[in-house]
Amino acid sequence: MNEAEHEKQGLLVLGVGNTILTDEGVGPWVVERLRALNPDVPGVEWMDGGTLSFSLATDVENAEHVIVVDATELRAAPGTVKVFVDEKMDEMLGGHGRSIHEVGLMDLMNIARLTERLPTRRALVGIQPGAVDWGTEPTPAVAAAMPEAARAVAELITAWTGVPIRAE
After folding, report:
1. 167 in a domain, yes or no?
2. What is the pTM of this model?
């Protein structure tokens, strides 16, 4: 491959989760809210990653920076939001077993690492679910946490790119 084919592109904001399993859908919901408030941000791609698949590996590899928003087992009260950046993200993903998704987030990061295309900066904005059951709405605790998660994503984007992002 030539050097142009290896050039990284912008920042990927990836919402992960299943929107028909109550709190499991929090990642895509937060990313969609941010996309609606910030539809045309140069260098920022908003993506609903669904329940993850190997097809997302190329998107992750091609991103200079990646922020993932997902319902995450934090061993905390429902609605708790925590941000894990760079090595802290790797440690967090490596410390918990496989995700309930077809492909784990750690799998995608490892593919990028093996191909020497790991994003320069990466973060996980994790929200502790209260319930993962049939339903298309989050529980009250997770719904109340969504603005905090959106602010965390906006702050990371602004810090990493210098571009101000609206969270509300």
Report:
1. no
2. 0.87
